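Thought: the user wants the 3D structure for the chain below. I'll pass the sequence to the structure tool as-is, report back what it returns, then summarize two notable features.
Action: structure_tool
Action Input:
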Amino acid sequence: MYLRSISMSHWSEGCSGAVLLGLLGFCWGSLSPRTSFFIGDSDRALTHFNRPDARNTTTLLLSEDGDTLFVGARDALFALNVSKPSVMEMIRKLDWESTNEPNFCQYVDKKGECHNFIRVLQLINATHMYACGTFAFSPRCIYINLQAFSFDSTAESGRGQCPMSPYSRNTAVVVDGELYVGTPEDLWENQPGISRYLSQEGRRNLKLVENRLKKSTFISSTFVPSENKVYYFLNDVSTDLDKYIAPHIAQVCTSDVGGQRILWKQWTTFAKAGLVCQSAGSLPFNVMQDVVALPPLQDFNPDEMLFYGLFSSQWSVNSKHSAVCVFRLGDIKSVFSGKYRSLNGKIRSSVTPGTCGIPSDSDADLNFVKENFITMASVNSAEKGFILMPDHNYSNLVALRTKAANGRNYPVFFMLTESGFLHKVVLLGKGPHIIEETQVFMQPQSVKKVLLSVTKDVVFVGTSEGVFQVPVSNCSFHWNCGECVLAQDPFCGWDPVQGVCSRVSGNPAGIRQDVESGNAMEACDLSNGSSEVVKYPSPELLPVLLDKMVHLRCPKASNFASLRWEHSDGRQLDRDTYLQQARGSLQFPALPDTLGQYLCISLESGYEQTLYSVIVMQDGPQIGSRNFRGVLVLSVLLAVSLCLIALGGFCLLKQRHYLHAQAKTLSDRCEAREQCEQQSFPM
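Observation:
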């Protein structure tokens, strides 16, 4: 299996066993992203839609052509133009605020969330969309005209179609214009329901028999055309004191019309099976967080459709880890066609519960399936289908396949962490490799949404801080062949003709790539004196004052690379003078013998490259450092003294001129009036 042996690249060694309740829990190694991008990094600029009137933008839906993103928010809906890369422009906004009595809402919800949170957005046909909101704990649903982006009906009760609380999880999918939902139908989530609404051709809306689900939390739902079934993924919580959480998969047939007498307006094809996500000898990962379906490759059996489930654990030994388990459609079908638990041994029938096409008037058969709806066996993950993701708590998952230069198809996951990072993960033969992580939000989020646009090659992340758009590939970030290969990104390969790392497409003859091993020396033909032109960074000039500390930092590099500084002539740095730290910083005093050129060099998987070059030069007169400070002080003192002497002489001269002028003026006045007495003035 992928991770049942823990011999993986970039995994830390050293584990100790732990025994809990008689079961062995493993201490797993760590799995880290190769490259990290944070909010504000110029190397990974994100497209962000955010407005003061756009809050809780966590319900996302793409138009059929992928050019428009519909966003359900708090008290409003938005239509965004996403037809071009790195663009999210608002086309229109549709306000939909709650008109309920606020006193009732505030009585129900002490947090004061008396708003209309849009929780259901589904395309009904080419002209209309269907939306449901919590409407201040009294759900409402309404039709929206897509062309005008305006309401096309009066809002009707959405009870059973939409949760009452904005914090409750729900799921919905439309099949041939009919709405299949899974949602709690009461405020306290004690009445989970699976229902069909907007039924076509005179068919009845259907609901689930009471007490078929145990305080369930709905995770996702998927329509499988080859089976004409809708599969629901959910977590059941036991009513026992231990509150054990059990992941399940449930199914209903889209052809179900309910019974004529027994199961009137209720599902006759509902069945439920357990899901097991567990590696040998360890406690299960029993809390399902998200599920995504990947259809089989072209010309493959439909039973090869895969469901990737994201799980966490309620056990403390696994609390810091996540796991991805892979379930085959063929295995799911086998469990649902097998034996069922008998809740009433007196009722017998030859029909298999969950079978599509049970006659609606067959009371005996309908009584049997009503009492026997839980399978005996559980659905186990497929072979090599347990994928451990240690040291990360993930909440959301989307997946796709892409063909690498070697012709092999690789599953690629985009997984959202609770801390706000979107991890891009490729599933290699030896296990998962996190290509990069991109920060998309900073504050903790209780409700999030991740949506993949295959036609636009982007991932949308809906949060309370707005909607972010992240490209599925970031090939241009890799500036040389070595970096391009070391990334082990199946989307990216080095084009030696163009001299760029570019998106792999078609038949990429000559493209250099090594997804499995990331061996840059071999892929870039650098092992035996390569003809590959390696571009070294131009040196920067850094003027410094002597006797001051110099601080140098290496630019962002791979988290897997080791960094070191050295002189441009290859001389190693003296440890008594230089302080080097692991993440590429260097400190040393500015002295005449420490001036010169320095190189920051990275080493990763045998590939060595210069990331940064700097020339440290003296700022100011080129004289000895010991004399310079004294000369500078004496020069300043001499200049000040000369200024004071000059100022004193100037002031004395001004005083003499002033006294002469005063004496002459007074003498003239006295002589004119003939009243002058002899006076003497100091000259």
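Final Answer: Structure generated. Residues 625-673 form the longest helix (49 residues). The first strand starts at residue 18 and ends at 20.
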